[in-house]
Amino acid sequence: MQPFSYDALPMRVRFGEKALEQLPGELEELGVSRTVVLTTPREQAFGEQVDELLGPVGLGVYPHAAMHVPVSTADAACAYIAEVGADSVVCLGGGSTVGLGKAVALRTGLPIIAVPTTYAGSEMTPVWGLTEDGIKRTGRDRRVLPTSVIYDPTLSTGLPVEVSVTSGFNAIAHAVEGLYAPDASPIISLMAAEGVAHMLTALPAIVADPADLQARSDALYAAWLCGAVLGATTMGLHHKLCHILGGTFDLPHADTHSVVLPYVMAFNLSAAPAADDALVRATGTDSPATLVRELEQSLGIVGSLAELGMPESGIDEVIRQALAAPYSNPRQVTEADLRTLVTAAFTGSPIG
Ligand code: NAD
To answer: Transmembrane region positions (predicted)?
Structure first.
């Protein structure tokens, strides 16, 4: 076994159907008593139910979380939180809402408690992001790590099928890149393989019946594992490309990950035999990249960057940005490689 180093991240996880009911007890145990619930505008009514569940501890809902955490949104949230005198924040939603909570924690030092309702996995990472003038800055800081995470699969039964599926492949992307990360470790590889296997089983079942609680539990468990992999390792080409695509063309986060993932897998796995072995075992197929692509197609998600709204003229810009900033990757990437890969993802051509 190769030598490795592994940092365990300090947080409590409560997992299970109706785990949300444990939120008041969790806040009490943390010693906080004045809490604001963050949501996106779409989940405001749900946030109000949670605020009610908190009784006198709930100070209200701040329903303005938005994708990629605009700095102006973070400023406004911090001002609201200071005005009401909150001592803690509950993030109820997906990566956008957790992202807003992290921005608040970064500035105020307040503890955040995450109640994730998608499979993005941000709640398991010390990574924050803030966007201003079209540029997204990201960083790592232990202060933004949620103190506690409550995973309740009943909360995701209403997550639209399309968002569920793309979010699920977003989680799988974390696991894939964690498997060949320079700072991978045996424990992380176990989590990654387990996450991929559970997510791949769960997604078709969710498409067949979005209210299937067993499938929702499997997917949320997988999201936790894949998010923990993301939090513990350094991501490679896939996350680099998706960061560029999202930031430059404002493409939807999880859909972009879903489209790009099989192309990067096909490119990278030939240079990452241990990761490939783990994925072959986890997927039960000789070609994990092809399996991912075919499963995505059978589950009905968008198949190309062109369909997501990327202009063809943007291919050069993606290549330029990807060549400009270094990132870790198991396989060296030339300009010609990038052109082939990005063009294939743009047109949605078969995995070769
Ligand atoms: P999201 O949080 O924007 O949610 C997607 C949509 O689903 C939103 O419209 C939301 O309102 C809706 N939604 C969420 N839960 C729902 C539910 N239970 N029922 C119905 N609708 C629901 O999307 P996401 O993919 O979860 O997160 C994407 C963002 O997270 C991006 O900004 C990305 O950069 C960030 N992210 C950060 C990290 C990190 O480690 N920092 C990791 C992953 C993602």
So the answer is: none
